[in-house]
Amino acid sequence: MRDLSWAPAVPTPPLLGAMSSATTMCGKRSKCSFSRLEVILIICLVLMIAVTAVLLILHFLTKDSNGKLRYFSSAITPCLNSRKATGNYLLGVGRADCTGPVAEIPLMGYANPDQVGGGLLTRLYSRAFIVAEVDDSRRVVFVSADIGMVSQRVRLEVLKKLKSKYGELYRQDNVILSGTHTHSGPGGYFQYTLFWITSKGLIRPSLNAIVNGIVKSIDIAHQNMKRGRLFINRGTVENSQINRSPFSYLENPASERSRYSSNTDKEMVMLKMVDMNGEDLGLISWFAVHPVSMNNTNHLVNSDNVGYASYLFEQEKNKGMLPGEVGLIPDY
Ligand SMILES: *[C@@H]1O[C@H](CO)[C@@H](O)[C@H](O)[C@H]1NC(C)=O
């Protein structure tokens, strides 16, 4: 990839080596002349500095014109404020399939180009949860999809579709998209080059399935919104994790380690949504576990342990329904 015709000018290939040797050479010579490579490097350096300066200026200008940073919108604070028991919300839950192609498509997670899809073990779903004030002055949608992670491309396309359907109702600052981090879902839905290397480029059918599944789950949640209540709880779950590098963990200071009972975080936080009759609508749980129950020799598309937990809970709560049929929507 490197143009070898440049090589003779400076014998040391690493950039820093080349630049420092250029400086010493320059000091020794009576007349300071630069080789072609040196000129190119200097131009690159100047350009990099210029681009950095422009980006910094742009960054601070936009921040000022907005008055404040908007990363942490107030949209989700109502859920966290512990309201009176009478506090009500409008709640909606929805689930839609986002499986996409399952054959001859690189799987996202282990960065192994040879790990390509060879069939289906479990379907992948997007689960959407909407919480709004009763007067609908504020709302937030949280989506968890059975995919490796959400990409910038997915987010941009979802927001674009939502905008064309709902105008300003679902926006940059009240749509939260998250992936369950399965390592056995189709890849190819990223816009960055690094991910394109292992996924062998952008794979439109994969991207479309994820975007359409997410938007459909939000549509369903949007359509079935009703008054209800939110409950939050936390507790510990034993015997379900391991630390993947106990040796490294021991490098933490003893004073810090003594604050915890083990080398894994056993706490599960759960947000439950119920309607006004006390019927469960859906729940979101947060628990620190890496979905790598399927290793990098697996070729069957599936949602790994996190998606499987959702599936089992849905089956238990929606007796007699097929997987994916509408009912209680949990998300792990
Ligand atoms: C990967 O998973 C397969 C199937 O469960 C198993 O047979 C194999 O031993 C696993 N490989 C490793 C390195 O754990």
Automatic annotation (TrEMBL):
GO terms for cellular component: extracellular region; membrane. One of its GO terms (molecular function) is metal ion binding. The keyword S-adenosyl-L-methionine does not apply. Its cofactor is Zn(2+). Keywords: Hydrolase, Lipid metabolism, Membrane, Metal-binding, Sphingolipid metabolism, Transmembrane, Transmembrane helix, Zinc. The chain crosses the membrane at residues 39-61. This is Neutral ceramidase. It is an enzyme of class 3 (hydrolase). PANTHER family: CERAMIDASE, NEUTRAL CERAMIDASE. It catalyses: an N-acylsphing-4-enine + H2O = sphing-4-enine + a fatty acid. One of its GO terms (biological process) is ceramide catabolic process. It holds the Pfam family Ceramidase_alk. InterPro entries: Ceramidase_alk (IPR006823), NEUT/ALK_ceramidase_N (IPR031329). Residues 89-320 form the Neutral/alkaline non-lysosomal ceramidase N-terminal domain. Its EC number is 3.5.1.23. Zn(2+) binds at H181, H290. It comes from the Eukaryota. The lineage of its organism: Eukaryota, Metazoa, Chordata, Craniata, Vertebrata. Binds 1 zinc ion per subunit. Belongs to the neutral ceramidase family.
